[in-house]
Amino acid sequence: MADTESTCTSVDDRTEDLVSPTRDALVDGIVGLLKPCLDQLDDRVRATRVSQSELHQQLEGLAAELAKIHEQSKCPLQLDSYIKKLQNAKRRVVVVNNILQNTQDRLNKLHAQVNKEKVLS
């Protein structure tokens, strides 16, 4: 059979041949656009989570130190309000950390879907 002869028997077969390269190019283009942004977002979320974790640990340490100072000194200063403020800040950090964790999980799922789509195309 010559190179110019087609083995397609219907219009659908020929349309499928035309769509596949276009679809592949489109998927590659979308992946090319999204992947750097997703990677950068992933890195920044990861760095923020590490920062939040470090801040959480420092707040816990500071709250413990203030509690020790309060117990040992029995000073006339009322540290209870400061300890409560620190505990509230700690709770907020935990909430933000949970939000970041959920965002990271969603980002990982999206990244996996993009990679899966790229492999399939």
Describe the model:
- The chain is mostly helical and 121 residues long.
- 86% of the residues lie in helices and 0% in strands.
- The chain is built from 2 helices and no strands.
- It is rod-shaped.
Jot down its keywords.
121 residues, mainly alpha, 0% strand
What is the compact description of this entry?
The protein is an all-alpha fold.
List the helices and strands and how they pair.
Blueprint: H1 11-73, H2 80-120
Please identify the structural class as seen in this structure: mainly alpha
N→C terminal distance: 29 Å
Strand content: under 5%
Morphology: rod-shaped
Number of helices, counting only DSSP H or I runs of 4 residues or more: 2
Report the sheet with the most strands, covering strand number, pairing sense and barrel closure. Answer: none
Average residue pLDDT: 81
- Helix content, binned percent: over 70%
The total of beta strands comes to: 0
The value of Rg in angstroms is: 28 Å
Pattern of helices and strands = HH
Unreliable stretches = 1-6
